[in-house]
Design brief:
The structure holds two protein chains of two kinds.
Chain A: E1 3-5, E2 10-14, E3 19-21, E4 24-26, E5 31-38, E6 44-50, E7 56-58, E8 64-68, E9 73-78, E10 87-95, E11 98-104, E12 108-113
Parallel strand pairs in A: 2-12
Antiparallel strand pairs in A: 1-4, 3-9, 5-6, 5-10, 7-8, 8-9, 10-11, 10-12
Chain B: E1 5-7, E2 10-13, E3 19-24, E4 31-37, E5 44-50, E6 53-56, E7 65-68, E8 75-79, E9 88-95, E10 106-107, E11 111-115
The chains are: A mainly beta, B mainly beta.
Chain lengths: 114, 116
């Protein structure tokens, strides 16, 4: 079975500071990895995805994530956050043999303070 | 263009009543998914369709839950004899193709179901 762990339920950070949101997954087979963002009262939007190739992937709004197979991690980073980045972030995986079934983590609430 | 539309936005119902939640995906999207999200949790897979065919319903909690997509477009998730534990946000998502990993999910704003 697959599972996704987001250890930090909330991350407070000051504006223009760097941030890292952690994601670890468990799977016995190869996976695809995703980060979604949810702004208040909206649906989830795709930030970035890793399918294959370069382990460093860049997404929208200046976010990037690095796939680390040995550590089964896919941490999300941004060098300088803005107030508008305040949202909830979800890490998700799907597996090669059933790629239409996504498993989500419990989410990390990023609170950017002025 | 229009995104994924879900209705109603909020639904309050009494225990034992049946409810039907509607999802109108982005036009032309092949795949449609239903997820349930409890407070403080991430979305949990319920079921998905390719066109009108239900491909995987392994996430439906029990036989009170069912879903259909008869014409390959709009989908309805039905919960019979609702229970308080069914209270959650129900999210629908669609994707353009079934291409492996290459078609991101587009989520609707969800239906908040409260069973009293």
């Amino acid at each position: 079975a697959q599972s996704v762990t987001q250890l930090d339920s909330q991350v407070p950070v000051f504006e223009e500071a760097p941030v890292e949101l952690r994601c670890n997954y468990s799977s016995s087979v190869s996976v695809y990895l995703f980060w979604y963002v949810q702004y208040p009262n909206q649906g989830l939007q795709l930030l970035l995805k890793y399918l294959s190739g370069s382990t460093l992937v860049k997404g929208i709004n200046g976010f990037e994530a690095e796939f680390n197979k040995s550590q089964t991690s896919f941490h999300l980073r941004k060098p300088s956050v803005h107030i508008s980045d305040t949202a909830e972030y979800f890490c998700a995986v799907s597996v090669l043999y059933n790629f239409n079934k996504f498993y989500f983590g419990s989410g990390t609430k990023l609170n950017v303070k002025p | 263009g229009a995104g994924v539309s879900q209705s109603p936005r909020y639904k309050v119902t009494k225990r034992g009543q049946d409810v039907a939640l509607r999802c109108d995906p982005i036009s032309g999207h092949v795949s449609l998914y239903w997820y349930r999200q409890a407070l403080g949790q991430g979305p949990e897979f319920l079921t998905y369709f390719n066109y009108e065919a239900q491909q995987d319903k392994s996430g439906l909690p029990n036989d009170r839950f069912s879903a259909e997509r008869p014409e390959g477009s709009i989908s309805t998730l039905t919960i019979q004899r609702t229970e308080q534990r069914d209270s959650a946000m129900y999210r629908c998502a669609s994707s353009l193709t079934t291409a492996e990993g290459n078609s991101p999910l587009h989520f609707g704003n969800g239906t908040r179901l409260t069973v009293t």
